[in-house]
Design brief:
Length: about 240
């Protein structure tokens, strides 16, 4: 889609119990500050109802989302980090840090998805890799997507940035091929930490105040019986 490097639908993944993640319901993305009108119209046409921006406040000022003032799409800023712990703990450690210390923000994202007209939704940060990767991994794990599938979804960011760029709308740091660090073992380690320390995705979200009914509603919203066709219900 013009104006992005890493906009992806997470539909079609197996989710256990004969279900799969719904198409055109949950998208993960890099920052949406360079979308031309044609891309905005494309997202409007598929029914986008909400954009959840995980970036820091200063990033929102420097590169505001085109949806920040959109009249038909709800825009929510939910910074997933207060500062960057990566220099101290490394990238894999940052993923564990988010799970251990940003529970209220993770729960806030889930509540936003469960709100009336909460989906279809796009969740993103700057590159759509780290903050978005952890949030997406948590959501997929909570609705029953296997670990190896979650790890492969995370890994897909690397080829998205490695491929040649042919987009007149991207004149910032995304305008050239980039090598990005997203080995599957990083997100697998985060999921193992999630299970060991928090009782899994559902355990962490329950600890943050979500009920079993909320988590079942999340599963219903983000998944559908295999063969039932595209979802995207906004509730």
């Amino acid at each position: 889609m013009p104006g992005t490097r890493n906009f992806r639908d997470v539909g079609g993944y197996p989710a256990g119990d004969g279900r799969e993640t719904r198409w055109r319901t949950l998208f993960r993305t890099d920052q949406l500050d360079r979308l031309p009108p044609s891309s905005v119209e494309m997202l409007e046409a598929i029914g986008l109802r909400q954009v959840i921006d995980l970036r820091w406040p200063h990033e929102l000022v420097a590169a505001p989302s085109v949806f920040a003032a959109h009249p038909g799409v709800r825009y929510r800023s939910i910074p997933l980090l207060e500062d960057d712990p990566t220099p101290a703990v490394g990238l894999a450690g940052t993923y564990r840090f988010i799970l251990d210390h940003r529970g209220p923000q993770l729960v806030e994202v889930v509540r936003a998805l469960l709100a009336p007209a909460g989906t279809p939704a796009a969740i993103g940060c700057a590159a759509g890799k780290d903050r978005t990767g952890v949030m997406t991994a948590l959501l997929l794990a909570a609705v029953g997507v296997p670990r190896d599938v979650i790890a492969e979804d995370y890994r897909l960011t690397a080829p998205m940035f490695a491929r040649p760029v042919d987009d007149e709308h991207l004149s910032d740091w995304r305008s050239r091929p980039l090598e990005v660090e997203c080995p599957p073992e990083y997100i697998l380690a985060a999921l193992e930490h999630l299970d060991r320390t928090h009782g899994g995705a559902r355990g962490l979200l329950r600890a943050g105040g979500l009920s079993d009914a909320d988590l079942d509603a999340l599963t219903e919203r983000l998944t559908t019986p295999v063969g039932a066709g595209a979802g995207g219900a906004g509730g």
